[in-house]
TrEMBL record:
Transmembrane segments: none annotated. PANTHER family: UPF0313 PROTEIN YGIQ. Binds 1 [4Fe-4S] cluster. The cluster is coordinated with 3 cysteines and an exchangeable S-adenosyl-L-methionine. Residues 226-253, 700-753 are annotated as: Disordered. [4Fe-4S] cluster binds at C393, C397, C400. It comes from Herminiimonas contaminans. It comes from the Bacteria. Residues 379-648 form the Radical SAM core domain. The lineage of its organism: Bacteria, Pseudomonadati, Pseudomonadota, Betaproteobacteria, Burkholderiales. InterPro entries: Elp3/MiaA/NifB-like_rSAM, Methylthiotransferase_CS, rSAM, rSAM_horseshoe, rSAM_sf, UPF0313, UPF0313_C, UPF0313_N. NCBIfam families: SAM_YgiQ (TIGR03904). Residues 242-253 have a biased composition (Basic and acidic residues). Keywords: 4Fe-4S, Iron, Iron-sulfur, Metal-binding, S-adenosyl-L-methionine. It holds the Pfam family DUF3362. This is YgiQ family radical SAM protein.
Length: 753
């Protein structure tokens, strides 16, 4: 696994002289005939409608492979009840690429209360139920049924975040990796353009897919004890981060070994010898030796059969998994599943700027496939006038999976590439009236931010660059982003550039000039930010900054709005029932909202999603942000429906429909003093609200997000997760998927930071 990756666009093209880029990638035999194709090299199967735009995974992956000379077809939202729809384009010459779409299929279909959603933003007319539960597994099985012996490559956010044993909220149990269930040949995770392109060229050259085992960002099944080469060594994860009872540090001058009595966690590794002979080396020699050892070491996680029944070892495995996420120092990992192992190579190396430009500059039609006619596809409506300028996030919020999926290293496009896309929207996208709806990414203001020292970046094992405080090695200069905003505004025909993506306000306050630029020119009346909570308990489990940063940002926001002569509002988002949250925490948040005259229209309840650290807390009641032991910190976790509803009701304390459950909750908490009709009370005493009370509430009400959105002519804001793009096997891929709601946008924009 080379540390110096081959440039994405340096491969010898497989293109025949008569093969021209398709107006749209074909979805039918008739379209293939029109293009003069007798077969497809790769067929991508997706749970989303096919929209030829880089915010949609199947389009990005398809166009990338097309640029390499491969013939790519699309099977979109097939009927999964039989194998016949998977034969629509014939048998692929190389492989089926299977993806659930831009969202995990379970998050797409179900709410945090496990109820089926009434719509699907990625389907024509928003029609629900157009994809199965656990779509990657179902599609892969049907494709194999359609053509036995065909190569199956799985990817997308769903496959990426289910690549090891994981807690599944919808079945309330630990499920095994998606690999053995789908029976796929290989899984490509994260932003895996590199692995996808390399894999496709090698399969096209005749290399068996079963022998391709050296690609970063891939996972596959192997026999027990398998190693890429004999010199590889295996390290038990319990030596990397020891679970069980914590022993005192040994006396360095005592030569005998101590027997770790009382270790309450079985399956832990035996202690290593206390004395080792260490050769004295220079710093560079030591670093090089460590790199060589790490590059030939695989970390064995506790087996699926163990973690499914042992919460402590599940939390331990989750912690080790996240610590091995930096591509600069991550080791391979392996986890037993029955009689076979799931092997995970280290994460993919980030794309360079010219590679990012190449990915986004390809020949996209920037429209839904013509077969949909005039059908309205909500996700397309949300993003068709927006531009993605970067990917990745170093925030590390525990409820969000962007960092695990896209990585914490920011990958940015060049200024000219971004400006070219704005001009393309102006000139080619129907209905454009001069307003770019978003210029952002997973986090709007992380564009071109990076560690000040590449060597430090490659050796860092922090879970977040901004928690508990902003790292001193992190560059926070926003000048390049300010320059980009100014050049974008100056493009002829562009009337307005809005920034609608999630904003990391603790970073923004480091650059008052950026806040001024943003507030003066790029806020359309409303700016959505996500404090998520007001109390230290839940914030510490979210890895989010305290309210001091919010207050400072609010002060700058109001100052610069006033200087610009604009009436503008901050719209804060909050999560109910997040791990680490008590009833008292939610009450204090409700009092904070009342004190600050916030009356939220839309709120969300925490949804445990695969692989997120907060999900580990929910399932195990342990804190994986620190070493996990039997005696380590227990995390307060709200699991019953009644208490989850109470926590959600606190966020909408002003809604008469919530007054009964709030009165009951306040009485149980011994806070009946907050029940009454005075200004300091939270809810009235009346068993049922009278019309006069409701009218009085409305007269006192500060305009909520819905009313403000209507006033400023914007779409109704949604607090949901922006979803990570999921190129099929590229990520093969707002909150990235913090995934508590379908995305506000089809790309990673609009996330909650």
């Amino acid at each position: 696994m080379s540390a110096q990756p081959k440039n994405l666009f340096s491969y010898t093209s497989q293109r025949r002289r008569d093969l021209k880029p398709a107006p749209f990638l074909p979805m039918s035999r008739a379209e293939m005939d029109k293009l003069g194709w007798d077969s497809c090299d790769v067929i991508l199967v997706t749970g989303d409608a096919y929209i030829d735009h880089p915010s949609f995974g199947m389009a990005l992956v398809g166009r990338l492979l097309e640029s390499q000379g491969f013939r790519v077809g699309i099977i979109s939202q097939p009927d999964w009840l039989s194998a016949e729809p998977f034969r629509a384009l014939g048998k692929p010459n190389l492989y089926f690429g299977i993806t659930a779409g831009n969202m995990d299929s379970m998050v797409n279909r179900y709410t945090s209360d496990r109820k089926i959603r009434s719509d699907d933003a990625y389907t024509p007319h928003g029609e629900p139920n157009k994809r199965p539960d656990r779509a990657v597994t179902v599609y892969a099985q049907r494709a194999r049924e359609a053509y036995p012996g065909v190569n199956i490559v799985i990817g997308s956010i769903e496959a990426s975040l289910r690549r090891i044993a994981h807690y599944d909220y919808w079945s309330d149990k630990v499920r095994r990796s998606v690999l053995p269930d789908s029976k796929a040949d290989i899984l490509i995770f994260g932003n895996a353009e590199r692995a996808l392109v390399d894999l496709t060229h090698r399969v096209a050259a005749g290399e068996p897919i079963s022998s391709i085992r050296d690609l970063r960002g891939t996972a596959f099944m192997v026999p027990p004890g398998w190693k890429p080469t004999p010199e590889w060594t295996e390290a038990n994860s319990t030596r990397v981060d020891t679970p069980g009872k914590v022993e005192p540090h040994p006396d360095p001058y005592e030569m005998k070994m101590k027997d770790p009595e009382g270790c309450k966690t079985e399956n832990a590794a035996p202690p290593e010898p206390a004395v080792k002979v260490i050769k004295i080396m220079s710093r560079e020699e030591r670093r090089q030796a460590e790199r060589e050892v790490r590059n030939k070491t695989v970390v064995r996680l506790p087996a699926y059969e163990v973690v499914k029944d042992d919460p402590v070892l599940y939390a331990h495995a989750s912690r080790v998994f996240h610590l091995e996420s930096n591509p600069g120092n991550a080791r391979a990992m392996v986890q037993a599943h029955g009689e076979r192992d799931v092997w995970l190579n280290p994460p993919p190396l980030p794309l360079a700027m010219d590679e990012m430009d190449g990915v986004y500059d390809m020949n996209y039609a920037r429209a839904p496939h013509p077969s949909y006619g005039k059908a309205r596809i909500p996700a397309w409506e949300m993003i068709r006038f927006s531009v993605n300028i970067m990917r990745g996030c170093f925030g590390g919020c525990t409820f969000c999976s962007i960092t695990e999926h896209e990585g914490r290293i920011i990958q940015s496009r060049s200024e000219p590439s971004i400006l070219r896309e704005i001009e393309l929207i102006r000139d080619k996208v129907k209905g454009f009236t001069g307003t770019i709806s978003d210029l952002g990414g997973p986090t709007a203001n992380m564009y071109r931010l990076a560690c000040k020292d590449k060597r430090i970046e490659e050796s860092c094992r922090r879970l977040s660059c901004v928690y508990p405080s902003i790292c001193s090695n992190l560059g926070t200069d926003h000048s390049k982003l300010i320059q980009l905003y100014r050049k974008a505004r100056a493009i002829p025909g562009i009337k307005k550039i809005l920034v609608s993506s999630g904003l990391r306000y603790d970073l923004a306050v480091r650059s008052p000039e950026y806040v001024k630029e943003l507030v003066s020119h790029h806020v359309g009346g409303l700016l959505k930010i996500a404090p998520e909570h007001s109390e230290e308990g839940p914030l510490s489990k979210m890895m989010k900054p305290g309210m001091g940063a919010y207050d400072k940002f609010k002060e700058l926001f109001e100052k610069y709005s006033k200087e610009a002569g604009k009436e503008q509002y901050l719209i804060p988002y909050f999560i109910a029932a997040h791990p680490g949250t008590t009833d008292e925490d939610m009450l204090n948040l409700a009092l904070w909202l009342k004190k600050n005259n916030f009356r939220l229209d839309q709120v969300q309840t925490f949804m445990p999603t695969p692989m997120a650290l907060a999900t580990t807390m929910y399932h195990t009641r342990k804190n994986p942000l620190r070493k996990v032991t039997e005696e380590s910190e227990a995390v307060e976790t709200v699991r019953t429906g009644k208490i989850r509803k109470l926590h959600k009701a606190f966020l909408r304390y002003h809604d008469p429909e919530n007054w009964e459950i709030l009165r009951e909750g306040l009485q149980r908490m011994g806070r009946s003093d907050l029940i009454g009709s005075g200004e300091h009370h939270l809810v009235p005493r009346h068993a049922a609200p009278s019309r006069a009370i409701i009218a009085a509430e409305h007269r006192r009400e500060t305009p909520g997000p819905n009313q403000l959105a209507k006033k400023f002519g914007q779409n109704k804001p949604r607090p949901g997760a922006a979803v990570v793009r999921t190129p099929v096997a590229r990520n093969a891929g707002n909150r990235g998927t913090n995934t508590t709601r379908p995305a506000r946008t089809a790309s990673t924009r609009g996330g909650r930071k």
